[in-house]
Amino acid sequence: MVSPAQTPQPPYFAVIFTSIRTEGENGYDETARHMLELAAEQPGFLGFETARQEIGITVSYWTSLEAIAAWKENAAHRQAQHRAKDWYRAFRVRVCRVEREYGLP
After folding, report:
1. 58 and 77 in contact (C-beta within 8 Å)?
2. Domain ranges for the chain
3. Which residues on neighbouring strands pair with residue 3, listed in sequence order?
4. pLDDT of residue 64
């Protein structure tokens, strides 16, 4: 069953990755799966949510800006970043501090 990420009480940080894919798979699915598994092992990782239609959105949650910076510099993640032009026509990365959260279970 799909459900929102279980995050602690704010404040914490979110990285919002919004993308439009290129045509073809080009190893994307396997790499994306591996990146999510690897991110989950990183210190400070809290969870993620992802959805893809015409525009893909992945939001990952982190305890600190330092944890986000460490993930950005992870060697395997850097290799995947170098393939961005193979997989995306366009993308944006936004980093923000989550101040409030509410919702249903």
Report:
1. no
2. 12-98
3. none
4. 98
Find tokens 């170098």 and name the residue.
Answer: 82
| CB 51, CB 99: distance < 8 Å | no
Model pLDDT for residues 17-54, shown as the tens digit of each residue: 999 999 988 889 999 999 999 999 999 999 999 999 99
H or E element in which residue 91 lies: strand 88-98
Residue 97 near residue 11, CB atoms below 8 Å: yes
Give the strand pairing for 56-62 and 88-98.
Answer: unpaired
- Angle of CA points 44, 94, 41, to nearest 5°: 25
With beta carbons less than 8 A apart as the criterion, state whether 91 and 19 touch: yes
Q: How far apart are CA 75 and CA 81, in angstroms?
A: 10
Tokens 């699915």 belong to: 29
CATH class of the domain at 12-98: alpha beta
